[in-house]
Specification:
The chain folds into 2 domains: about 50-170, Creatinase/prolidase N-terminal domain (Creatine Amidinohydrolase, Chain A, domain 1, 3-Layer(aba) Sandwich); about 185-415, Creatinase/methionine aminopeptidase superfamily (Creatine Amidinohydrolase, Alpha-Beta Complex), CATH 3.90.230. Helices cover about 30% and strands about 20% of the residues. It contains 10 helices and 16 strands. The protein has helices spanning about 30-45, 55-65, 95-100, 130-140, 155-165, 175-180, 185-210, 215-230, 290-310, 315-320; strands at about 50-55, 80, 90, 110-115, 150, 170, 235-240, 265-270, 275, 280-285, 340-345, 350-355, 375-380, 390-400, 400-405, 415. A hairpin with a 6-residue loop joins strand 13 and strand 14 (about 390-400). The longest helix is centred in the middle third of the chain and has 24 residues, at about 185-210. The radius of gyration is 23 Å and the shape is globular.
């Protein structure tokens, strides 16, 4: 098995400012055209004549519109595209007018105000849900969707009921969008790399700050501040876990004081220009025991074995099989241990294809393809009964194998402020 230092790191640049006049960086027009072409390709592949999208990441992928994460998945924004027409976005009040100003190529009928009841706060008696459903049905007829069938990713029950009342047949549209989003172009890979580069810097700050008396929540505050200073548009989550809270993994930070000898691991999930990270690192504060070092070594070995398999044509069951069964590291079954020995696509959404785990991949393997970007996560509890190690690496799948884009050192257990 190759040591981790032998795995190639990505040569994808992380150039900071994404557009300048003197160097080719992110080509926004190419990015938008690529994403729209991927949606149309996936519609053809899945036999879907129209897509109605409520999930925020899907809307951004299709329309390149954004109004802040206060609106994330509240159901108030929705977009429609048919095989025969351009996309339309219904947005929250004045945001619709703002899009038309921000995107001069967008027609007036492509960005319009919409409202489906603010998740039930405005009741169906007002007719807003019915009005939206009837408008969608009318557009489907105008654009030649004769059977009025539309793929929907996620929607409130009241909206689905009104679509049915308007004669619209609803089918699963989320699988179509997952197909569209699974292969990234060079612009998406650059944005994902830039997002990881920002987290590289945050981990340096965390490593320098870790000492007795700092709280888990203080690390969360530090990470938020640094990410926003570097240009993050949203910090979705900072997992900050230390001491006896490490095993089992609680997936939420607390105000616990970090003490000498504590294991501490962190996951930084943030968004840069629409693209996310998921990036774990583990430290020990002050001094490390042999049990902590052994747990980290085991986690690294499981990670390296998974990375070594990442290349086009490999299937996800092959990766899942190099990870331990749930019972081997203290869990009742694979559902109980889900998310610990784990892989997931990363893009405009946190969990894209492929999803890799013993829960799903052994029976339903997915082929790994060039252009996929995904995170691999491993976890090992320590023999002391409370410490644990957690590692996560993001990789780009190339014709030559994996390229790692999470670069903060992780070959050995790092001891912060060592005594």
């Amino acid at each position: 098995m190759a040591p981790v230092t032998d795995f190639p790191v990505a040569t994808t640049p992380a150039p900071g400012i994404q557009s300048v006049d003197w160097e080719e960086r992110v080509n926004w027009d190419r990015l938008k055209e690529y994403r729209l072409a991927r949606v149309r390709m996936a519609m053809d592949q899945h036999g879907v004549e129209a897509l109605l999208l409520f999930e925020t990441s899907n809307i951004r992928y299709l329309t390149s519109t954004h109004i802040g994460y206060w609106a994330f998945n509240k159901g108030e924004r929705y977009a429609l595209i048919t095989r025969n027409g351009d996309f339309r976005i219904w947005d929250f009040g004045s945001a619709a007018k703002a899009h038309r100003l921000q995107h001069p190529t967008m027609r007036a009928d492509q960005s319009i105000g919409g409202n489906t009841g603010l998740q039930g706060a405005i009741g169906p008696a007002t007719g807003l849900q019915r009005r939206a459903a009837q408008e969608i049905a009318s557009i489907l007829k105008e654009e030649g969707v004769a059977d009025l069938t539309v793929g929907v990713d996620m929607a409130e029950a009241s909206v689905l009921l009104e679509l049915q009342a308007a004669g619209v047949t609803v089918v699963d549209g989320q699988q179509t969008m997952m197909t569209a989003r699974e292969i990234k172009n060079q612009d998406e890979i650059m944005l994902l790399t830039q997002a990881c580069a920002m987290v590289d810097g945050v981990y340096q700050d965390i490593y320098e700050a870790l000492k007795p008396g700092i709280r888990e929540s203080d690390v969360v505050a530090l990470a938020h501040q640094r990410l926003f200073e570097m240009g993050s548009e949203f910090v979705e989550a900072i997992n900050s876990i230390a001491g006896e809270r490490c095993s089992p993994h609680p997936h939420v930070f607390s105000d616990r004081l970090i003490r000498p000898g504590d294991s501490a691991y962190f996951d930084i999930i943030h968004v840069y220009n629409g693209y996310r990270t998921c990036y774990y690192r583990t430290f020990v504060v002050g001094r490390a025991t042999q049990a902590q070092r052994d747990a980290f070594k085991q986690t690294r070995e499981w990670m390296d074995a998974a990375i070594e398999l990442v290349r086009p044509g490999v299937t996800t069951d092959m990766i899942a099989k190099v990870w331990p069964r749930a019972e081997e590291f203290g869990f009742d079954d694979e559902m109980d241990a889900f998310g610990l020995q784990f892989g997931h696509g990363v893009g405009v959404g946190l969990h894209e294809r492929p999803i890799i785990s013993r829960l799903n991949s052994l029976e339903d393997p997915v082929e790994i393809k060039e252009g996929m970007v995904f995170a691999l996560e491993t976890y090992a509890p320590a023999a002391d009964g409370h410490s644990a190690a957690r590692i996560e690496e993001e990789v780009v799948v190339t014709a030559d194998g994996p390229k790692v884009i999470t670069l903060f050192p992780c070959e050995e257990l790092m001891v912060a402020n060592e005594y």
